[in-house]
Amino acid sequence: MEALAEQHTKQAALIRESADTLTDLWRAAAGKQDHLELLPTYDAVQIVIDSVQSDAQQHVRAMTMGTVVVPRGIQIVGGLFEALERGVRYDVIYDAHVLQNEAALHMAQECIDAGEQARVFPRVPLNLTLVDQRWGLVAARSQQASPGPEFVAIVVHESPLLRGLEGIFDALWRIAVPITNSTELNDVEAGPSLETKRLLTYLSAGLTDESIAREFGVSERTIARRIGRLQEALGAQTRFQLGVQASRQGWL
User: Fold this and answer.
1) Mean pLDDT to the nearest integer, 108-120
2) Residue 95: φ, ψ to 5°
3) What is the pTM of this model?
């Protein structure tokens, strides 16, 4: 009995020492924040997404390849309009295939009406949300069967990695095409219609609006309106810029 009691006494002493050590480690780490925070489930990601609008103070930059949180489907993020009303700036890059959905395009245009700045890019590589310059959310879902995980999401806090993600967004933002509340579904498709290609070819050949109108069998005003809509869709201020943007997008 004495030997057993002594054994338990030693175990209790070891537990107390371990508790003291763990307490010291916790106190040393208190107030410190890891740069990376893994989010293992869709629900955890949704909680973070929902917190963006209330946490943002000045500027939110986001790019989307499509919804990652499957059960929620296509919808406007809760609190977005309230954040815009508070004066938070939103710059958003949409993948072109996202806006090929009429409902998604309509929602994007609602956000633009409320003050969001929006652009479209052919192949957005991942979902990224940057809140002010303090933290970001990176999320992606595998588009095909692979041996790796189907879903990955992390929160990135203040660090060189966060600065790098901001640089990636800014680079894509510069070459993405602006969209407005008058952008139509055909304007954001992966490629232009045959009629649009024909119009761009005539413009690049130097034909006048009168000549182009005659080729299409429509009025000059209709041609001018179509050209203006193309300039708006591609973010071009002049017809020369329209040709440059169309060439950059592979439309010519």
Assistant:
1) 89
2) -70, 140
3) 0.62
